[in-house]
């Protein structure tokens, strides 16, 4: 009798624990061992692993770096005082963790007529909170600028004699390994460029040499669409190379295939953090164009972060990551009440043009393209758990072939669109490939499939399916529209757990 009661309790517990509305995607699921199982399509493409993004690929937590200098605001312009303090920290030696120390800004109002520049490794700027009772940096005056510029220098440079061709006739999306012709110049832990050359045949089959022209429209040219993905070799077995982050665009020999080579990036800086600050810009009207434009701009930087900052009234962005920004985490931050004309090139609240970046727990109001990537942005990149209200345009890959972005748990009263944008702008065309919209809530969405080179996915979306700019384009991979209970709830968190 006791056994029957225990068995009955177990059955009842199972019934109540199992939620019949829960469902898994046909593209991946959590298997019995608790790991993610991916289901490739007929070409071998699968949704890629987006987990190795952000500060040190997510292997290291954002550190609490020792305070080495404390300052308080002064009357009038604080530009010189703040820059001198940054320069003073920049002269300190690096510790074993790669940091010089934290410049701590006590609460109060710091008026800044100019811009603050960080050009040296290992500096953290931290305030006493991103609220009205915290540390407030105000961009004063009538000149359009970035208030804090974290800029290294340099660019990707090929190490001669290391380039080799990928042998595979086709490498599907999601792959982390492939064969090359010659491994003699390569070893495990080498940093490499995965180079995908463009061809005019690819442009033609993508129909981006056939954009309906209006004044200023530029047809795509192959020479402008060569893509360089930064990767690291994790294993070599014979001629087989394994890399740390997946392929996010098909490598097809009929469109030029792919190559790899070792590289340097002299002048790129690392270990920079910006924390706990409120940024404001002075302005004279709701459509003022001559005032603070970007609160924090980063380029030529690897392994950095922005944490717990808020911007108000800037014309373009709270945080903008340029093409040389890699492995940056932007988290727990807000961009409110932009002031500018509401048209192109403005109000990109959190903009990412870099690689392997993580932007999470963000909130915006009055933006246009709130969580957005630009032309030829090379992934993987992730936007996770982000909210946008009173938005004036759309979220997503904006133009000219961004590859490998996850939009995970986005909540917007506007749209998410991944589509052929045709002759908008100067010929935006196909905005991206391997764009994954996961468990998000929108007023409406267009997710279309490019003619060649991969898929776009929208899984577990709450909202309307829209026709988009061109209703004759193929739909992307739509699954579970307005169906709640998607498991895993967050793809990024599930992949991160699985990797660790």
Explain what the structure shows.
The chain has 4 helices and 37 strands. It has 500 residues and is mostly beta strands. The chain has 3 domains: 159 residues, no CATH class; 213 residues, Pectate Lyase C-like (3 Solenoid); 101 residues, no CATH class. Strands 4, 5, 6, 8, 9, 20, 22, 24, 26, 28, 30, 32, 34 and 36 form a 14-stranded parallel beta sheet that branches. A 10-stranded parallel beta sheet has the order 7-10-21-23-25-27-29-31-33-35. Strands 11, 12, 14, 15, 16, 17 and 19 form a 7-stranded antiparallel beta sheet that branches. A hairpin with a 5-residue loop joins strand 2 and strand 3. The N terminus is likely disordered. This is Pectate lyase superfamily protein domain-containing protein. It comes from Arcticibacter svalbardensis MN12-7. InterPro entries: Pectin_lyas_fold, Pectin_lyase_fold/virulence.
Proportion of beta-strand residues: 35-45%
* Outline: globular
The tally of strands reads 37
Helix content: under 10%
Q: What is the CATH class designation of the largest domain? A: Mainly Beta
Question: What's the architecture of the largest domain in CATH terms?
Answer: 3 Solenoid
CATH topology of the largest domain: Pectate Lyase C-like
Overall pLDDT level: 95
Contiguous uncertain segments of 5+ residues: 1-18
């Amino acid at each position: 009798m006791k056994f029957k009661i225990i068995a009955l309790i177990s059955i009842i517990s199972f019934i109540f624990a199992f939620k019949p509305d829960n469902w898994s995607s046909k593209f991946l699921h959590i298997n019995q061992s608790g790991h993610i199982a991916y289901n490739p399509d007929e070409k071998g493409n699968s949704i890629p692993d987006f987990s190795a993004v952000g500060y040190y690929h997510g292997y290291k937590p954002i550190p609490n770096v020792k305070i080495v200098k404390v300052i308080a605001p002064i009357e009038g312009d604080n530009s010189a005082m703040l820059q001198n303090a940054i320069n003073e920290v920049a002269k300190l030696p690096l510790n074993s963790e790669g940091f010089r120390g934290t410049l701590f800004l006590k609460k109060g109002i710091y008026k800044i007529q100019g811009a603050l520049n960080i050009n040296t490794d290992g500096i953290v700027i931290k305030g006493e909170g991103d609220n009205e009772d915290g540390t407030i940096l105000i961009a004063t005056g009538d000149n359009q600028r970035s208030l804090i510029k974290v800029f290294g220098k340099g660019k990707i440079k090929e190490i001669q004699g290391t380039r080799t061709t990928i042998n595979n006739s086709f490498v599907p999306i999601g792959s982390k390994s492939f064969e090359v012709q010659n491994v003699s110049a390569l070893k495990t832990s080498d940093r490499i460029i995965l180079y995908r050359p463009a061809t005019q045949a690819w442009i033609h089959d993508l129909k981006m040499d056939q954009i309906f022209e209006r004044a200023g429209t530029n047809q795509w040219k192959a020479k402008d669409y060569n893509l360089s993905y930064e990767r690291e070799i994790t294993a070599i077995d014979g001629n087989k190379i394994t890399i740390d982050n997946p392929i996010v665009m098909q490598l097809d020999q009929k469109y030029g295939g792919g190559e790899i080579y070792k590289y340097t990036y002299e002048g790129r800086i690392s270990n920079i953090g910006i924390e706990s600050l409120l940024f404001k810009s002075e302005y004279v009207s709701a459509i003022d164009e001559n005032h603070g434009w970007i609160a924090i701009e980063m380029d030529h930087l690897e392994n950095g972060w922005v944490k717990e900052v808020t911007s108000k009234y800037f014309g373009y962005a709270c945080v903008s990551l340029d093409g040389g920004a890699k492995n940056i985490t932007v988290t727990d931050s807000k961009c409110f009440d932009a002031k500018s004309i509401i048209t192109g090139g403005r109000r990109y609240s959190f903009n990412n043009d870099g690689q392997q970046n993580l932007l999470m727990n963000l909130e915006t109001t009055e933006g246009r393209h709130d969580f957005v990537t630009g032309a030829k942005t090379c992934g993987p990149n992730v936007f996770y758990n982000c909210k946008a209200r009173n938005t004036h345009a759309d979220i997503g890959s904006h133009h000219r072939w961004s590859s490998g972005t996850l939009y995970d748990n986005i909540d917007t009263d506007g749209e998410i669109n991944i589509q052929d944008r045709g002759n908008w702008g100067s010929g935006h065309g196909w905005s991206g490939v391997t764009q994954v919209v996961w468990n998000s809530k929108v007023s409406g969405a267009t997710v279309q499939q490019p003619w060649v080179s991969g898929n776009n996915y929208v899984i577990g979306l709450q909202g309307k399916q829209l026709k988009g700019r061109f209703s004759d384009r193929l739909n992307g991979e739509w699954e579970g529209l307005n169906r709640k209970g998607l498991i895993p709830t967050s793809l990024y968190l599930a992949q991160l757990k699985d990797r660790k």
